[in-house]
Amino acid sequence: AQRVTQPEKLLSVFKGAPVELKCNYSYSGSPELFWYVQYSRQRLQLLLRHISRESIKGFTADLNKGETSFHLKKPFAQEEDSAMYYCALSNQAGTALIFGKGTTLSVSS
Amino acid sequence: EPEVTQTPSHQVTQMGQEVILRCVPISNHLYFYWYRQILGQKVEFLVSFYNNEISEKSEIFDDQFSVERPDGSNFTLKIRSTKLEDSAMYFCASSERQANTEAFFGQGTRLTVV
Lengths: 109, 114
Fold this sequence. Notes:
The complex is a heterodimer.
Chain A: E1 3-5, E2 10-14, E3 19-21, E4 24-26, E5 32-38, E6 45-49, E7 60-61, E8 72-74, E9 83-90, E10 97-99, E11 103-108
Parallel strand pairs in A: 2-11
Antiparallel strand pairs in A: 1-4, 3-8, 5-6, 5-9, 7-8, 9-10, 9-11
Chain B: E1 5-7, E2 10-13, E3 19-24, E4 31-37, E5 43-50, E6 53-57, E7 65-68, E8 75-79, E9 88-95, E10 104-105, E11 109-113
Parallel strand pairs in B: 2-11
Antiparallel strand pairs in B: 1-3, 3-8, 4-5, 4-9, 5-6, 7-8, 9-10, 9-11
C-alpha cells in the first residue's frame, strides 16, 4: 500500500538551529516525492520535489530509497519558516498525491 | 500570478442537503483534483479529472460525490446528501500535467454539516 508517514506532529526549534522534518514512505516502484508547505492563512503550495534536486528557501530533501525516506532539512531555521509541512507521494499513474499527516514547524527567537 | 480560486470560502449546510463546491482552476491546466481535510487529519485525495472524465478516485469518493466541468472554466464537486462526517476543508487543485508535476491548490472551502 502507498503510504506517507510523518512521525512528528510538531517540531519546535530556535532561530538559527538546524531543522529536519522526517518523512518515510511506503511504495512499490520508483516514487515521486514532494514537500508542500502551508503558511498561516495561505494555501498549500509546493516547496520542492525530489526530481528537481533543488534548494528552495534554504531547504533540501534527499530521497533515500534504502531507508525509504525523504527528510526535509535546513541548516539554519528562520522565523518565517514557521508553517505546516506536508510530505506527499505521487501515485504510479501520476493522478493523485498521497499526503502525510503534516508536521507543524515552529521557529522562535 | 494565476491562482486556483474556490467559492464559497465557508458553507454551512443541513444534513441531507446537497452542496456544490466550486473551483476555477488555472486556465491552461489540464488536470483537476479535489482533496479534503477533516479537522486534525491529513489531506486526503478524493478524485482527479482529465479530459472531461474521472481519471482516478479514492474509496472516499462514493456515489454521493460527483464532479463536473460544466462550462470549460469551472470545476465543481457535488455532494448529493451531506452527512455530518462530510464536514471538512475541501481543496481544489490543478496541474498543467499529471500530479507528479506541481499541483496548485485553492484556498479551500470549509464545509460544515449540521
